[in-house]
Write a structure and sequence with these properties.
This protein is of the alpha/beta class.
Amino acid sequence: MAGLTVRAERQGSRALLDLSGELDLATISKLRDQATGQLDDVGVRELVLDFAGLTFLDSSGLGALLQIRGDAISRGAKLAIVNVPAAPARVIAIAGLNSTFGIGDAPVS
């Protein structure tokens, strides 16, 4: 069973979460807890999720990302997803969520 590692870093009003591993039903609570902790800090205006180390993303992971995005918006913060590898990018594209998450189009074939 692969897991998910989430490493947090603050850069002023920006909180960066580096994800490594798999984002699925078994690991979404780890990401949600970290994201909520960062967003609870009133100084955070932007939450950046760095997917460079993400190897897998499923529908429950997408649901968690949508929830985190909603939490960020409700707190007046922005959510950015960066460095998305091909496999997770494909899942996001198939779900039609590229523009929702502000990432470029990826091939879905």
